[in-house]
């Protein structure tokens, strides 16, 4: 595929992601299975979603302080719904859920029926670790067999020459080490989720000074991380299309991008900036491939 055709494909994918977000992209879930242990992101037993922000820190601290070997948490009622029972005398840990609601301003010049102001309020929940519960047996996570691997995608990523360590509890790129850390292949939901996650982290690595020297801090200041995450996820969507693994954006791409766009509500051009940088990242990856 030549550069112009790739550009056309990437533009279409970006447009489809934007359309999916406008239609309601849903909630993003991590693409790999884990037990929520204290060194990984703690997860909620009912939704299966990872806790975020200060809640992650609060639950890590509680797990360490009390010696909990699991990072699976739930409210009293959530455990009851699973026929499990919080042991008598166990103390809960508090987490906070932020909700947004429309609040009409008293000043007609600021807010009205068509343009209500947006406000946030916090609601506290008491949660218990699975180590505090009787009658709960965690289900064994599915194991993705090596036979599901995608050889041409593995070869594409290997040609990038970015150091990687497998077997980590989460996927991330450390710029100080110029090193990618990835969960093992067999804990992912499917092979495409593995490739997409790996390429996402490789896209972060393309921003290093000795590669594309990408820096959003001057334009976006405190929101630079959000734009970098948009860039990496769009690049992953582009490369999956190039590899013939997903000709249209997967729902998880749109949901992930949507989660970061919430941080950037005041900048309608942010996704287009990210798309441009994502194309540059994808083009760099293609340039590392051996001649066909």
TrEMBL record:
Q: What's a single GO MF annotation on this record?
A: single-stranded DNA binding
The superkingdom of the source organism is Bacteria
Q: One Pfam family for this entry, by name?
A: ArdcN
**Where in this chain does the record put each N-terminal domain?**
8-128
Q: Which InterPro entries match?
A: Antirestriction_ArdC, ArdC_N, MPTase-PolyVal
- List each copy of the Polyvalent protein metallopeptidase domain by range: 151-277
State what protein this is by name. Answer: DUF1738 domain-containing protein
Organism of provenance: Mesorhizobium mediterraneum
């Amino acid at each position: 595929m030549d550069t112009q055709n790739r550009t056309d494909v990437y533009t279409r994918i970006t447009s489809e992601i934007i359309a999916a977000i406008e239609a309601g992209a849903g909630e993003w879930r991590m693409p790999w299975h884990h037990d929520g242990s204290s060194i990984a992101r703690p997860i909620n037993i009912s939704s299966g979603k990872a806790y975020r922000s200060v809640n992650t820190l609060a639950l890590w601290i509680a797990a360490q302080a009390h010696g909990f070997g699991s990072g699976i948490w739930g409210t009293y009622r959530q455990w009851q719904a699973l026929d499990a029972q919080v042991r008598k005398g166990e103390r809960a840990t508090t987490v906070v859920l932020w909700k947004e609601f429309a609040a009409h301003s008293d000043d007609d010049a600021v807010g009205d029926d068509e343009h209500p102001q947006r406000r946030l309020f916090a609601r506290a929940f008491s949660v218990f670790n699975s180590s505090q519960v009787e009658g709960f047996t965690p289900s064994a996570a599915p194991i993705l067999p090596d036979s599901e691997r995608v050889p041409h995608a593995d070869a594409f990523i290997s040609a990038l020459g970015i150091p990687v360590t497998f077997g980590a509890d989460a996927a991330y790129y450390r710029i100080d080490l110029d090193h990618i850390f990835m969960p093992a292949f067999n804990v992912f939901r499917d092979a495409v989720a593995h490739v997409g996650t790996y390429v996402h982290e490789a896209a972060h690595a393309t921003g290093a000074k000795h590669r594309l020297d990408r820096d959003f801090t001057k334009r976006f200041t405190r929101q630079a991380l959000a734009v970098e995450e948009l860039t990496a996820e769009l690049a992953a969507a582009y490369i999956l299309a190039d590899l013939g693994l997903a000709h249209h954006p997967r729902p998880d791409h749109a949901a992930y991008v949507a989660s970061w766009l919430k941080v950037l509500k005041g900048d309608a051009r942010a996704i287009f900036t990210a798309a441009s940088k994502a194309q540059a990242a994808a083009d760099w990856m293609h340039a590392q491939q051996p001649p066909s």
